Amino acid sequence: MQPEKTEKEKMLSGELYDAGDPILIADRSHATTLLHQYNSTPHHAVTHTPLLAQLLAACGPGSVIRPPFFCDYGYNIRLGSGVFLNFNCVLLDVTSIEIGDQTQIGPAVQIYAADHPRSPEARRANLENGRPVRIGANVWIGGGAIILPGVTIGDDAIIGAGSIVTRDVPSGTTVVGNPARRPAPVY
Q1: Residues annotated as part of the active site
Q2: The dihedral sign for the CA sequence 53, 69, 61, 175
Q3: Which residues of 134-170 are buried (b: 16+ CB within 10 A; e: fewer)?
Q4: For residue 163, what are the CA distances in angstroms to 12, 62, 111, 134?
């Protein structure tokens, strides 16, 4: 007989889990402490790089996150090299969020791996779940865009400012709007 999964194991695998679990609360508290330090110190690579190393699963060389920056746990976020996140980005990382090399992300972008069950009974039981978000290399995401749970954005894609990305975006594609779609051709 297999031992029952912990709430953290359920969360990381995308299953329904209880976010009120004491271990998860402690993990979020740890991330909040590091984020407070990060967001309240002058932006210098000397001070910020070590804080990101403590907070994130991976932060490639030359990556920059301008404060303020917000996330749930941090340990589910993997940044490639040369990634740039502008001011006021929010990454809800209950499961993995991966961002490829040289991707540029505008201010106030929100990336949600966190999701909620569609069943009203499960929501009443305070259960949550997540779906991984993957963003390729050399992607440009305009300010204020929102990337929803489970979305994959291919290499070299462009996401227009203010777009809400509800579906996967193929490599090299530009999408805009709500929901984000390829713009109509101009003749």
Answers
A1: 116
A2: positive
A3: bbbbbbbbbbbbbbbbbbbbbbbbbbbebbbbbeebe
A4: 27, 27, 12, 17
Encode pLDDT of 7-33 as tens digits: 999 999 999 999 999 999 999 999 999
Reported as a single tens digit per residue, the pLDDT across 108-165 is 999 999 999 999 999 999 999 999 999 999 999 999 999 999 999 999 999 999 999 9
Q: Report residue 100 as tokens.
A: 């490829």
Q: Order of strands, edge to edge, in the sheet holding 152-153?
A: 58-59, 77-79, 97-99, 133-135, 152-153
Instruction: List, in order of start, the domains of the chain with CATH numbers.
Output: 7-175 (2.160.10.10)
pTM score of the predicted model = 0.94
Question: SS3 for 64?
Answer: strand
CA angle 134, 135, 140 (to 5 degrees): 165
